[in-house]
Sequence to fold (225 residues):
Amino acid sequence: AQSVTQLDSQVPVFEEAPVELRCNYSSSVSVYLFWYVQYPNQGLQLLLKYLSGSTLVKGINGFEAEFNKSQTSFHLRKPSVHISDTAEYFCAVSDQAGANNLFFGTGTRLTVIP
Amino acid sequence: EPEVTQTPSHQVTQMGQEVILRCVPISNHLYFYWYRQILGQKVEFLVSFYNNEISEKSEIFDDQFSVERPDGSNFTLKIRSTKLEDSAMYFCASSLRTQQFFGPGTRLTVL
Fold:
């Protein structure tokens, strides 16, 4: 079984400052990794994904994440945040076999302060 | 750009009543999913569906829940006898391979 840990439930950061949202996972099998963003009263939008290949993946809105297998981490980063980045961010994993059901972390609320 | 749609956006029901949540996945997708998010909590997997049958289901998906793909376009989640704790946002998703596309969700409120 897979599980995802997002240690930071809330992250406040000033506009134009860098941010890192942490994600650690545990799994007995090889996994795919994802970050989703949820804006207020909306559904889940994919930010980026790691399937294979380069461990540094770039996504939409200037976000990137690095897969670290030895540390079982997939932290999300952005060098300079904008007010519009205020949202809930979810890290998720799925195993590489079967129907690829997603297992989500508890989410991190990013609040960008003007 | 194709997208997953869900209806209704908000459903209010009395405890013990049956509800059907509807989803229209992206047309060429093969895998279909339901997830739920209780207010303030994480998104939880309920069930996946492939080739007209359930692939996997979580512990949450008990006998009160069922899914159906009655025609070539709709994918439904039925809750037979709703409980207060079923109040949540229910998300449908579909995928061709690994990337799942989510609908906007249906907010279910059980009174």
About this structure: The domain at 3-113 of chain A is CATH 2.60.40.10 (Immunoglobulin-like). The mean pLDDT of chain A is 92. The CA atoms of residues 34 and 49 of chain A lie 4 Å apart.
